[in-house]
């Protein structure tokens, strides 16, 4: 309407009567037409190119630019609302308890997770653990540390098949942030290589992926204690036969104490039962273990996270998760028994409880 009034003596074709300016109704209809099409039927005359009215061309240009942006915004907005997947995490179940238990000589913490909507299996489902220390005595009073997962192996991305209940575990080894510091073997053994800030796992050394032990005499590194002992014993024979003398304080293999320095010794290092050691440490540091499961929803291709946290009240010492998968009666398909999903067998028994020492 403003553009039409700038040059009242020129006929732009917006009205049939050149004496009058365009009324609001016609201007609104013209604006709508501009936003939706570029093929004009003008309210007035037949000239749709407005050669004499540059102000009208500018006006139409901005009207079209605005409508393009408006369409793009609406499309993006509705698509984003429809495709968001964060509520998909509701269908991922975590066990109500985490289990701390001893498997062989190794302490580990284990949880269980499952995606209820197994008809639409999650894509790229993977899991991570974090230890949140609310009253950490080290640092500024709170810390957030990553915990490596052993099963599934985080070296391979810790991917899961969540359409069946699967257990996730972290070894509470010497590098674990939830191991009470006074129980760390690296404090007691000079043979173990320090982490130097890396998030290591003892299991990597045991299977030969990384050498975690070092011979103090010659500097050779080994993955397992057994191999290091073999090396020291053999070198002792060589040194004995060759008549090696100790010179300038240099260590010989004959001088190494491989019995007292055993980094994998399993004898009791605490008078307290294991669960008391862990409970005391978890309470004093305010430790909360955070399990994060990330996956892609296969229907809308949206990424989502499901979170669960475990404090000392949510931890069971010893036991195993009950088997909750069974064969269906009618079909041969697997069925998940939700009644047993959170169940723990032999709680407080082997690998936990009051009688099990560290
Ligand atoms: Zn050596």
Low-confidence stretches: 350-358
Query: What would the average pLDDT be, to the nearest integer?
Result: 83
Q: How many strands appear in the DSSP assignment?
A: 15
CA-atom Rg in angstroms: 36 Å
Question: Which fold name is given in CATH as the topology of the largest domain?
Answer: Immunoglobulin-like
Relative strand content: 15-25%
Membrane topology: Multi-pass membrane protein
Keywords: Ion channel, Ion transport, Membrane, Potassium, Potassium transport, Transmembrane, Transmembrane helix, Transport, Voltage-gated channel
Family: Belongs to the inward rectifier-type potassium channel (TC 1.A.2.1) family.
GO molecular function: inward rectifier potassium channel activity
Structure report:
With 358 residues, the protein is of the alpha+beta class. The protein has 3 domains: 2-83, no CATH class; 91-172 and 268-358, Immunoglobulin-like; 189-262, no CATH class. Helices cover 23% and strands 21% of the residues. The chain has helices at residues 2-6, 24-36, 54-83, 202-206, 225-242, 274-285; strands at 92-94, 98-103, 106-115, 123-133, 143-147, 166-171, 213-214, 221-222, 287-296, 303-310, 315-317, 320-321, 325-327, 334-336, 344-345. The strands form 5 sheets. Strands 1, 2, 3, 6 and 11 form a 5-stranded mixed sheet that branches. The protein has a 4-stranded antiparallel sheet with strand order 5-4-9-10. Helix 2 (24-36) crosses helix 3. The longest helix has 30 residues, at 54-83. The protein binds zinc ion. Zinc ion is lined by residues 215, 217-218, 220, 231, 235, 253.
């Amino acid at each position: 309407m403003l553009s039409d009034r700038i040059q009242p003596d020129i006929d732009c074709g917006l009205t049939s009567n050149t004496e009058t300016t365009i009324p609001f109704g016609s201007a609104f209809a013209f604006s709508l037409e501009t936003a939706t099409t570029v093929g004009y039927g003008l309210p007035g005359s037949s000239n749709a190119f407005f050669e004499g009215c540059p102000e009208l061309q500018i006006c139409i240009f901005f009207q079209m630019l605005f409508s393009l942006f408006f369409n793009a915004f609406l499309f993006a907005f509705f698509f984003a609302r429809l495709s968001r997947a964060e509520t998909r995490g509701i269908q991922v179940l975590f066990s109500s308890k985490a289990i701390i238990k001893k498997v062989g000589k190794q302490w580990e913490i284990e949880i269980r997770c499952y995606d209820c909507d197994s008809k639409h299996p999650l894509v790229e489902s993977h899991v991570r653990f974090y230890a949140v220390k609310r009253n950490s005595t080290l640092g500024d009073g709170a810390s957030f540390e990553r915990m490596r997962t052993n099963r599934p192996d985080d070296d391979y991305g810790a991917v899961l098949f969540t359409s069946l209940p699967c257990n996730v575990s972290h070894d509470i080894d010497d590098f674990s942030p939830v191991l009470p510091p006074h129980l760390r073997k690296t404090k007691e053994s000079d043979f173990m290589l320090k982490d130097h800030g890396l998030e290591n796992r003892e299991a990597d050394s045991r299977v030969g992926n990384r050498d975690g032990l070092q011979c103090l005499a010659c500097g050779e590194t080994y993955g397992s204690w057994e191999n290091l002992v073999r090396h020291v014993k053999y070198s002792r024979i060589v040194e004995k036969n060759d008549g090696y003398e100790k010179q300038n304080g240099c260590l010989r293999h004959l001088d190494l104490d491989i019995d007292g320095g055993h980094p994998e010794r399993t004898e009791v290092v605490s008078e307290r039962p294991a669960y008391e050691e862990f409970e005391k440490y978890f309470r004093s540091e305010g430790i909360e273990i955070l399990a994060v499961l990330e996956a892609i929803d296969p229907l809308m291709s949206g990424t989502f996270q499901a979170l669960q946290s475990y404090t000392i009240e949510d931890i069971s010492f010893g036991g195993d998760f009950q088997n909750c998968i069974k064969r269906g009666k009618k079909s041969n398909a697997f069925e998940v028994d939700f009644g047993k999903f959170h169940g723990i067998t032999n709680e407080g028994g082997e690998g936990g409880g009051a009688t099990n020492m560290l």
